[in-house]
Fold:
Amino acid sequence: MSVNELDSTIGSTLVTRVTDNTDVPIRSLYSNQPAVLIFLRRFGCQLCRSYALKLSNELHPILKQNNINFIGIGLERFGLEEFQKENYFSGDLYIDEGKKAYQTLGLPYLGWFKGITDLFLRSTKAWNDETKKMGVQGNLKGDGFQLGATYVVGPNDGKVWLAHPQKDYGDHPSVDEIIKALRDNIPDFHE
Structure:
């Protein structure tokens, strides 16, 4: 996917807002202000939980200060209740029923063989170590082989300022990478 095509690619795709079960087009999540969109693998995934918690603690306060939406999009409801109860994510949560946006964006689906072998990659092991230090646990419920992504998008047309589709379970952009994308595109951005 070209870094300029988010709005034309998935802008009209409907996602369900968790707070009230209302379907809204993804475009509405960034139409009036910039947004950081996190396409989560699974709400029960301990690596996803720890990444969401890290972003919530380190990035979300900066986003609030700069009036930037912080959005988490999951592909199913498995683990959602526990994810919310344990406050892993401080932004707004949505569900992409049927993985329409995931599929349209071409986010990788690993399958059994690659899904198992990716557990032994250096990036996965490193993020798992970080997760253990944070004391975050997870479960194995739901689709464990779908990878996610992080997008930083501008308002109105959804121009993508940062696109980071996951290559494996432990592949996430750093908080600094996300901040750099925002700083490079918002003249009055404050850290």
User: Anything to note?
Assistant: Strands lie at 14-17, 22-25, 35-39, 69-74, 92-95, 149-153, 160-165.
